[in-house]
Write a structure and sequence with these properties.
heterodimer, A: alpha+beta, 14 strands, about 25% helix, B: mainly alpha, two-stranded antiparallel ribbon, about 0% strand
Amino acid sequence: MKRREFLTTAIGGATAAVCSSAEARPNLEPTPEAVGMLFDSTLCIGCKACVAKCKEVNDMPPITDAEQQSWDSARDLSGDTLNVIKVYKNGTAELKDSETDGYCFEKRSCMHCVDPGCVSVCPTTAMRHDPVTGIVTYHSDACIGCRNCTMGCPYNVPQFEYDELFGQIQKCQMCNQAGVERIDNGQMTGCAEACPTGATLFGSRKLLLEEAKRRVVLKPGEIYNYPRGDIASPDSYHEKQIPNYKQHVWGEKEAGGTNVMHISAVSFDKLGMPPLEERSASSIAEGVQHTLYNFLALPAVVLAGLTYVVRRNTKNDSDGGES
Amino acid sequence: MSEYRALGGRIFTRPFIFFMVVFLISVYFMVIRFTEGMGAVSNLNGGFAWGIWVVYDVVIGTAFACGGYALAFTVYVFNKGEYHPLVRPAIVTSLLGYALGGFGAFFDMGRFWQFYEIFLPWNWNFNSVMLEVGLCVAIYILVLLVEFAPTFLEKIGAHTLGAMLNKVLFLFIALGILLPTMHQSSLGSLLIAMGHKVHPLWQTWQFQPLLALLTALTMGFSIVIFESSFTVLSTKGPSETPMLSGLSKAIVGLLVVFLAVRLILLVVQGNLGKLFAFDMASLLFLIETGLFIVPLMVLLSPTNRNDGGKLLIAAVCMLAAGSLYRFNAFLFTFNPGPGYSYFPSVPEIMVTLGVISFEIMAFMVLVKTLPVLHRQERVS
């Protein structure tokens, strides 16, 4: 029963290896020079200048809603829209930034994950993570359109152009894709530039995270001088009463963290953010894959064993195995 | 003289014409998909990027095509030569199932005109489960073609070539066992990176590959039972029940392991409570688990194992159970977040039905024209 022992060992070994491999690789860490954005929901007035500016900078078409063409009222991300402002409403919706009987606005665009699911799952390396800026980029020349990136993104950000025969994936690339290259040219993202209140603030992840942590512990009701544009060299400041921030910087740790971070006075589950743990799902998937397939060592051993066993079991057949 | 024979007989029977009509309707929608794009025929959207074309045609369809894999395991690894007569028809259905799974993947590919990018080594992302699935399935289709070749070579009378192939066939048989082990488990691993979008009752993280593999095997064995029952019925040949009853012992083992792992994980991962939430997910879980338990109960009794009818019932339950397990995880309880919903469009359903119809038609033609089915002694 040697073959049976061999098989039991092989299958048992693989199972044990995989099941104990949960910690095989930790989350990826933020790159030191990572650029990002901070969205402060309490500053957003819902003007959607960022949505229109995004379409202009990235040369995206308007969307058609109820037979009207619109540049700023897309309801969700799509192959035509990389950035969208959504509204939270509760009860009478009278009070800004109140969970009950209140309203507030929330931005949806690529979060530029530190440990991006889309990059991890893409079979052809069409999704890439810039080693310096941390921007998650898309390269249509290698993409087969399997849309695993959409499935592997916790935020459903990469969007395929279903309405086109020769479509591609569309996603925010921080206005730095070939032909736009705003970050490389020392500019900021279109949405941050257009934002009149500094609700979308551009800058390095490090500075933005410091700013976010500073804001959420400010005393509600007091006055804070909010910067606008690029946090390293703001265009202007404006004074505003400090809202009752939730003690939570979204993107500091969620699934390994993101370079685009959010703060808000309404809890993030109410704003439609996904229920994420600190461990990124892709790091677990990669742990399993690498345990099983590193250097194809395990498959090679199993194949050798199988070849031996099959050869022995087909030898007695006068004319080979399949007869 | 071969032990196998072509059934012969008319090709254009009534069932064949029925399946052809369904197939022709699907061709209409396939043409639209390749002239106007996927949006014109499907309900795929920003949250549900994978619909029934991926989940049924690829994920479930290839599991249905695991008959060749399950039998190869039995015959060549556990050296149960008595099952040999079932091998050829199983290889044929595996080849058809996988070829059409491959077609489904191509059909669903948003950028189908550059599908070859996945075969270019400089593009490979070794972190990607999808890469493993794509390459492994593609190679396995070629392996199945080689495994099927003796049948075809016998038909055209290329005996020298057939004999040469037989000398190296053991290599392909070994590959034909390794590759499905790899990609059928990977089809489960695809769920890991989807994280929270997969319902906790189905998100078993690093156990995904094991559960996918176990159910692929139960489905593979079931399809062998299912097909031979129907072939026996439709050809009025002798019953293959004694052989099938032996297979069902293997199935019992697989089912016990699957159910045990599933139950232990529910407890360990702290999801036992969700089982009794009696929402849609818990209901689907209970139906699915019931479909796994019923065949186990049936097959535990030796009398039932020797009863062709009971065997067929058990096989159908397990095919439904394995399919529902995959549908539940990938679609029915899949939750990409607020604002997204998916139900397949009529064209999507028609394309899937068309693919299934084509598979059945091709099987009918192949068993009638090629020596696929085993020649058995007949009472006159």
